[in-house]
Amino acid sequence: MSWTDERVELLKKMWGEGQSASQIAKELGGVTRNAVIGKVHRLGLSNRNSGTAKPAAEPKEKPAAAPKPAPAAAAAAPAKPKPQPKTEPARPVTPEPAASAEGRPATPARRQIIPAGQPLPPQPSANEISPEALAKVNEIEKKAKKLGLMELTERTCKWPVGDPATEDFWFCGLPVQQGKPYCEAHVGVAFQPMSARRDRKR
DNA sequence: CCCTGATTCGC
DNA sequence: GCGAATCAGG
């Protein structure tokens, strides 16, 4: 595939949104993350920084290294009056579930944990979760990898456990089920068919 | 191990 | 210009 106008635009957009190169590559299709990164650099829009500049440029100096003329950042394109949101505060990583201090999260973090995550499951609200599923969860949570927010990836279960305001807070981190944001056990409680306790007479 | 971007260099 | 291979890190 080639870098058509549209593809480049999508690339710019996503990169600007803080998407990772691999995610962009996936979205575009037909290219690897390397291709994306290469293109990003060629386009000159590599700096996504704003706070911490990196002065340490050349840790390894090659003999006869070409000096960098410091290409002016992409900002001179009067030809295209495109309102581009260059700066985005969006660090879309901020779960603040009001999980009860008990062992069971009342509400899984349903803020976007990963920028280009899958569509989040319908809010089960104060759904009643089947006892079996709950038991299952309690089981696996013992084996949870207890990952920190930063350790989460597209293939780690993003189910939050504990109170975010406490040290005792972590994410499941077990391998996710294909295409889902959670591991099998947590998918079980997250995606309730909403018919948990059907014919319950009580 | 999973992942991230950065750089190099043959094409 | 392109991107795989490689590097350097988290």
Automatic annotation (TrEMBL):
Annotated segments matching region Disordered: 41-132
Highest taxon above the source species: Bacteria
InterPro entries: GcrA
Compositionally biased tracts (Low complexity): 64-79
Protein name per UniProt: Cell cycle regulator GcrA
Source species of the chain: Phaeobacter piscinae
Lineage: Bacteria, Pseudomonadati, Pseudomonadota, Alphaproteobacteria, Rhodobacterales
Name of encoding gene: gcrA
